[in-house]
Amino acid sequence: MLQNMDDMLPARVIAYDRTTNLAQVQPLIAMVNTSNERIMRAQIASIPVLQIGGGGFVVSLPLQTGDLGWIKANDRDITFFLKTLAEAAPNTQRKHSFRDAVFIPDSFMRYVVINEEDQDNLVIQNIDGSVRVAIWADKVKITAPQIILNAVDNILLDAPLTECTG
After folding, report:
1. pTM recorded for the entire structure
2. CA-to-CA distance for 92 and 100, rounded, in angstroms?
3. What are the tens digits of pLDDT across the range 6-36?
């Protein structure tokens, strides 16, 4: 019975459509049959990608071919939910299947370099840390070769500009 249930596995992005937020992924853990033969899993053609969102905001990542992450199977068929984004009965009796999964991007800390000063801070950055936004308890630090501000109104509060480097 458990051989027919999926849960969570690492996967690699084959293709990603940011407009529809659907990815094609290749699971990276093979199955093993009773003869101890390795059988590669089939690619998943259209899997929703996790975007953390709420309150009118979203974190959207520009996934690239080769990016890694996790596929997580839902408990039941989510076909009708995906069409309406509302409470729905399952379309089939299918349970714990990667056909009803979500892709969760993950860098697996392979290449991420977190600046020593940011060990206790929230950080959004590129892989090598050369462009980053670090949110500290008492400030926000932006590091980048170029910063472009595009705003209708520019408001400078009564705070001094204490550090501005190259």
Report:
1. 0.79
2. 11
3. 889 999 999 999 999 999 999 999 988 889 9
